[in-house]
Every structure is written in C-alpha cells, then in structure tokens.
Amino acid sequence: MADEKKNQFNILSGDSTGGDGSYGVGTINLDNISPVIVDPQKEEAYIDMDALHARSKIEKKVRFKPDKEPLVEPNLYWIVWVATQVAQEGPYIYGIGACEVQVSTEERRIKPGYKSMPEHVNNLDKSLKGKVLVEHMDEKSKRILVDYLKEEHGELWKNSRDEVIDGLQ
C-alpha cells in the first residue's frame, strides 16, 4: 500500500493561507507537483516524493557540487517536476520541467555528484506556471518518461496540455 501511494501524482487543491494574506504568502505551493525520477541506465521512471526535500533515492549519500568536471564515469538521471491540475475531463499535466542529476560511479561511501540547485528551483517554479522545459533531455530519457506516463498514468497523459505532449514527442 505504501508503494501504491508513492507512485501516485500529488493532485490536491487548497490555499494553505486560507486566502487571508498572512504567513506563507509568496511561498511556492507544492500541492500539485510530483517529482518523477528518470533513470536511463535502468530504463525506468518512478515518482519519488522525497525529491521535494532533496532526499530521493538517487540523491542519498551523494555530495553535490555545482560542476561536472571531477565526476568519474557518472550515471545520468533526471528529476522531472510534473505539475498537475484538474479540469472537467479529469486531472492533467499542466507543466513539466526536467533537471539533470549526475552521480559518480566511484565506490565510495559518500559519492560526488552534480546538480544545479538554481535550475531545480527555477524549473519546479516554471512547471507550476505551465511551462514545458524538456528540450535539453536526451531522446532515450524522454521516451522512458513518456512510456511511464502513458502506461502508469494514462488518464493524466491523455488529458495533458498539447504543449506538454508536443514537448516530449
């Protein structure tokens, strides 16, 4: 049951401030965002809500640096921020922003890795605003993501905005 819950998109509604303009105004509401991890090495994609706090399965025991240079034969991953909304037809993908993550394959307790925190924050925010930022993904990773969305979340994919579908095709 726990795995079932982790593999579902976060589709909620509600204003945490109650609309009164008090504490929390100006913060990002993460009710409708889900991080999808794309692992091209294993040819799989899955939702990992721990990525919201930089604690996804691929980020644990990794010390991230802002440059790729010192990494030894790194594995490539993508954290894809998927924003959803609900219309009369049902839930749909509203925005999507992919962020590159690399993790060294060295045998070390704490592995070196690369990710750009500003890119993650910006792409998450832009996906919430309906932007589609996936053009920098490699074709194999895009295919894995599309297959995952179609097979595991068919209704969500079917109802998605044309910009999202076109960006991933």
Can you walk me through this structure?
By secondary structure, the chain is α/β, with parallel strands linked by helices. It is 25% helix and 29% strand. It has five helices and seven strands, in the order αββββββαβααα. It has helices spanning 2-6, 117-128, 139-152, 154-158, 162-168, and strands spanning 33-39, 44-47, 62-65, 75-87, 90-103, 111-115, 132-133. Strands 1, 2, 3, 4, 5, 6 and 7 form a seven-stranded mixed β-sheet that branches. Strand 1 and strand 2 (44-47) form a beta hairpin. It is elongated.
Helicity, in percent? 25-40%
How far is the N terminus from the C terminus? 33 Å
Structural class assignment: alpha/beta
Largest sheet: 7 strands, mixed
Sequence stretches where pLDDT stays below 50 over 5 or more residues: 1-5, 11-26
The tally of beta strands, per DSSP, is 7
Return the string of H and E elements. HEEEEEEHEHHH
Radius of gyration: 16 Å
Q: Write down the overall geometry.
A: elongated
* Residue share in β-strands: 25-35%
